[in-house]
């Protein structure tokens, strides 16, 4: 996997580079701002771009805008955005693009999970930080549809929203894949979401339902 990193904090940028290199990935460019990203992507043809959501000069939404622009010009490119804080608006909007991930920076410390999420995004899947998912789900558990879910189904729903496949959910919850498939069917039925092929379309459907619930 070829990776481009854009992060203004030098220590984090170097740490990310070392983490990917130690895992056997090739870091082809490392930048301190988002301005050079289009050229870096054109020159190096990476599989994944990892960038901070808040970048110079204003430290507001430069990273989010750069991520959206990269997905428009290079739809096959995996883009993984890192954030210090939970910002569900950007997360839900951008994950709809596919091949996109949104993780909090402290997730980097969970090296195995972080690398798995990065690889999933590079392969066209989705990755949404568990804390972001929890912020979408928890306040709305009294919604009629969500209230019908069992505790186990809530766990499955949150892992679905994170972008995990049935196999990934089974591994995380120490269940068989057949059991997970049954839970997923129940969740989709209770949320009035049609069963669809493709992990990303499933993630998008779940997030769309949660966003609709949030807006009520």
Summarize the model shown:
The chain is of the alpha/beta class and 216 residues long. Helix content is 53%, strand content 14%.
Characterization of this structure:
The chain has 216 residues and is of the alpha/beta class. 53% of the residues lie in helices and 14% in strands. The chain contains 11 helices and 6 strands. The chain has a 6-stranded parallel beta sheet, with helices on both faces. Strand 5, helix 5 and strand 6 (126-128) form a beta-alpha-beta unit. The termini are far apart. The model has no long low-confidence stretch (mean pLDDT 86).
Shape: globular
Encode the helix/strand succession as letters: EHEHEHEHEHEHHHHHH
* Main beta-sheet annotation: 6 strands, parallel
Helix content: 40-55%
Mean pLDDT figure: 86
Distance between the termini: 41 Å
Low-confidence stretches: none
Strand line-up across the major sheet:
2-1-3-4-5-6
How many strands?
Answer: 6
**Which oligomeric state applies?**
single chain
What structural category arises from helix and sheet content? alpha/beta
Radius of gyration: 17 Å
Q: What is the tally of helical segments?
A: 11
Strand fraction: 5-15%
